[in-house]
Write a structure and sequence with these properties.
The complex is a heterodimer of chains A (252) and B (264). Chain A has two domains: 3-71 and 150-251, Rossmann fold, CATH 3.40.50; 81-148, no CATH class. Chain A has helices at residues 47-55, 88-92, 94-98, 104-116, 132-144, 162-178, 190-196, 225-230, 232-251; strands at residues 3-16, 19-32, 36-40, 62-67, 73-76, 150-154, 182-187, 199-203, 210-215. Chain A starts with a strand and ends with a helix. Chain A is 38% helix and 26% strand. Chain A contains nine helices and nine strands. Chain B has 264 residues and is mainly α. Chain B folds into two domains: 3-43; 61-256, MetI-like (MetI-like fold), CATH 1.10.3720.10. Chain B is built from twelve helices and no strands. Chain B has helices spanning 3-39, 45-48, 51-64, 66-98, 100-115, 122-129, 133-157, 161-169, 174-185, 187-212, 217-226, 230-256. The chains are: A alpha/beta (252), B mainly alpha (264). The A-B interface holds A 55, 57, 73-75, 77-79, 81, 83-85, 94-95, 98-99, 126, 128, 142, 146 and B 162-163, 165-172, 176, 180-181, 184, 260, 262-264.
Chain lengths: 252, 264
C-alpha cells in the first residue's frame, strides 16, 4: 500500500495570554492508502489537534508533514452539525454548493449515496425529524459528497447513547470500507478503535507523544465492527492495549 | 369528539366572548364617565377635553383631509427611519463581524452612544440640518440604531464555533460562514430587533416632530398644547396608540411567514 500521509516529529502548542500549553510533542506516524487508523489517548491529550493540523485548520509549529498536495480531506465532527433550517438534501449538498459544483453529476453521486445508505426517502425532511443514527449517517454523506481521499473522524460517535453508538459505528465503518476511503479516527474508546481499525496509535497524556503503534489484524474485518467485537482476538488486543496505556501513565 | 371535550370547548369560547364583551363595556363606561364629568363641570373641559370634543375634532380633521396629511407624514417618517435603522444595523454589525480590529476599536464608542439619552441629540441635529423631514428621520434613526447594532453584533459573535469549523472544512471561506451560518441563525434576533426598532423609530420621529416639524402627530401634540387645544392633543395621542399597535402587528404577521423556526 502507498503511504498517503507521513507525520515526522510534529509539535504544537496553544498560545494564550496567560501562558503556553504544549499539546503535541514529536508525533510521528504514517497513514497508508485505504487504511483505517485510530488515535486513542486520554481526554484532552491533544488528539483532535492532530486532525486539525492534518485538515489545515491549524498550522504545525515544528516537524514535517508529508503528503501529496492533491490529497483532499473530509472532516466529521462529534455532533452531526446539520443545519436545522435546511432539508436533509440541502444539508448533504452543503459542500458542493459552497464550491458552486452542484452539477447533475454530483447530484447523482449524492443521490446514489443517500439511496445506498437508506436516506433517500428522507431527503425533504428537516434534521429535527430524523433519528440520531440517521443524522450521523447524513453527516457522513455530507462529508463524502466532496469525494475526499481521507476522512478525519473526530469522536463522531461520542454524542450518541451506547446502543446507537455501537450500531452507528458499525454502520459508518462499513460505509467507509465500501467506499474505499482512508480514515483517521480520534477516540477515547479503546474497544471502538479496535473494532474499526487496521492500526492504532496510542498517545500519552498532554503533551501528547506516541506511546506505541499497534497493528490490528483480526480475520473477517470486512464483516463490520460488530462482528469483530465477537472475535477472540478482540479481547486479546484489548488486554494488550489497556495494559500499555496504563503502565505508561504510571511511569510518568 | 367526546362529550367532555365539547363541554370544555364551549366553556372556553364562552369565557373568551365574555372577556371581549367586558373590554368593550369598560371602554364605554370610561368614555361615558369622562363625558358626563365634563358636562357637569366636575372636570374642566378646557384642560381635559371630552369624548364629544375629540369626536368633533376628528370629524373636522377628516372632512378637511388634514388628519390624513398628519398621519401620513408621521407614518412615512417612522417607516423610513425603521428601514434605515434595520439596514444600518445589518450593514454595520456585518462589517464589525468581518473585521475583529474594527470591532475592537469601535465597540466602546457604540456602547457610549447607546447609553446616551438620544433626545439630547435632537437639538444638535436641527442646528446641523435645519428643520424638515431629513432631520426628523435622522432623529428617528438615532434613537434606535446604536442599540440595534450592538444587539445584532452580539448575536453574530455567538455563532457556534463548531459550525464555523464545519463550513471551513467543507472548503468555505468567511463569507460562506456568514451566508450559511451567521445570517440564518440571526433571524430570530432580527425579528425581535424589528419589533423593538419600529417602536423606537416612532419615539424618535415624535421627538423630532416636537422640535422641527410643521406637520405630523408630534407637531399636533406640541402645537395643541401651546394653544390649549386639548381636543387636538388627545386625539393625536389616541392616533399614536393605534399607529404603534398597527406597526407592531404588521411585524407579527411577517414573523408568522418566516418559513422556519430555530429549534434544536
Amino acid at each position: 500500500m502507498d503511504t498517503m500521509i507521513q507525520l515526522k516529529n510534529i509539535s504544537f502548542s496553544y498560545h494564550r495570554q496567560d501562558g503556553e500549553i504544549k499539546a503535541l510533542s514529536d508525533i510521528s506516524f504514517t497513514v497508508k492508502k485505504g487504511e483505517f487508523v485510530s488515535i486513542v489517548g486520554p481526554s484532552g491529550c491533544g488528539k483532535s489537534t492532530i486532525l486539525s493540523i492534518l485538515a489545515g485548520l491549524q498550522e504545525k509549529e515544528s516537524g514535517d508533514l508529508q503528503m501529496n498536495s492533491s490529497v483532499k480531506f473530509g472532516y466529521m465532527f462529534q455532533q452531526d452539525l446539520l443545519l436545522p433550517y435546511l432539508t436533509l438534501w440541502k444539508n448533504v449538498c452543503l459542500g458542493p454548493s459552497i464550491h458552486h459544483q452542484l452539477t447533475g453529476e454530483v447530484c447523482k453521486y449524492i443521490e446514489n449515496l443517500l439511496n445506498k445508505y437508506g436516506l433517500i426517502n428522507f431527503r425533504n425532511k428537516f434534521p429535527s425529524q430524523l433519528s440520531g443514527g440517521m443524522r450521523q449517517r447524513a453527516a457522513l454523506i455530507r462529508t463524502l459528497a466532496l469525494n475526499p481521499d481521507v476522512l478525519l473522524l473526530d469522536e463522531p460517535f461520542s454524542a450518541l447513547d451506547y446502543q446507537t453508538r455501537l450500531l452507528v459505528a458499525d454502520d459508518i465503518g462499513s460505509i467507509i470500507r465500501k467506499e474505499n476511503k482512508t480514515a483517521v479516527l480520534v477516540t477515547h474508546d479503546l474497544s471502538e478503535a479496535i473494532s474499526l481499525s487496521d492500526k492504532i496509535i496510542i498517545l500519552s497524556k498532554r503533551p501528547a507523544s506516541v506511546i506505541d503503534i499497534v497493528n490490528i489484524s483480526i480475520p473477517g474485518k470486512e464483516n463490520g465492527s460488530l462482528y469483530v467485537r465477537e472475535q477472540k482476538e478482540f479481547g486479546d488486543y484489548f488486554q494488550i492495549l489497556w495494559k500499555e496505556m496504563n503502565t505508561h501513565d504510571k511511569c510518568t | 369528539m367526546t362529550n367532555a371535550h365539547e363541554v370544555y370547548l364551549k366553556k372556553l369560547s364562552k369565557y373568551r366572548k365574555t372577556i371581549k364583551l367586558t373590554r368593550g363595556l369598560v371602554l364605554i363606561l370610561f368614555l361615558s364617565i369622562w363625558e358626563i364629568a365634563a358636562r357637569l363641570d366636575l372636570i374642566d373641559e378646557f384642560f381635559f377635553s371630552s369624548p364629544m370634543g375629540i369626536g368633533k375634532w376628528y370629524y373636522k380633521a377628516i372632512t378637511t383631509g388634514e388628519l390624513f396629511t398628519h398621519i401620513g407624514c408621521t407614518l412615512f417618517e417612522t417607516i423610513l427611519s425603521f428601514f434605515l435603522v434595520m439596514f444600518f444595523s445589518i450593514f454595520i454589525a456585518s462589517i464589525l463581524w468581518f473585521s475583529k480590529p474594527l470591532a475592537d476599536i469601535f465597540e466602546p464608542s457604540l456602547v457610549i452612544l447607546n447609553s446616551l439619552p438620544k433626545s439630547a441629540l435632537a437639538p444638535l441635529i436641527i442646528v446641523w440640518l435645519g428643520t424638515g423631514t431629513k432631520t426628523i428621520v435622522i432623529a428617528g434613526i438615532s434613537v434606535a440604531v446604536f442599540g440595534s447594532v450592538i444587539n445584532l453584533f452580539t448575536q453574530f459573535k455567538q455563532t457556534d464555533e463548531e459550525r464555523e469549523k464545519l463550513i471551513i472544512t467543507l472548503g468555505g471561506n468567511r463569507l460562506d460562514v456568514y451566508k450559511k451560518i451567521v445570517l440564518p441563525y440571526s433571524v430570530p434576533t432580527l425579528i425581535n430587533l424589528m419589533k423593538v426598532n419600529i417602536g423606537l423609530s416612532l419615539v424618535g420621529v415624535i421627538i423630532g416632530e416636537f422640535l422641527a416639524a410643521r406637520k405630523g402627530l408630534g407637531y399636533l401634540i406640541i402645537y395643541g398644547t401651546q394653544v390649549f387645544k386639548l381636543d387636538m392633543v388627545i386625539s393625536a395621542i389616541i392616533l399614536l396608540c393605534f399607529i404603534a399597535y398597527g406597526l407592531y402587528f404588521l411585524i407579527q404577521i411577517l414573523e408568522k411567514h418566516i418559513p422556519f423556526m430555530m429549534e434544536e
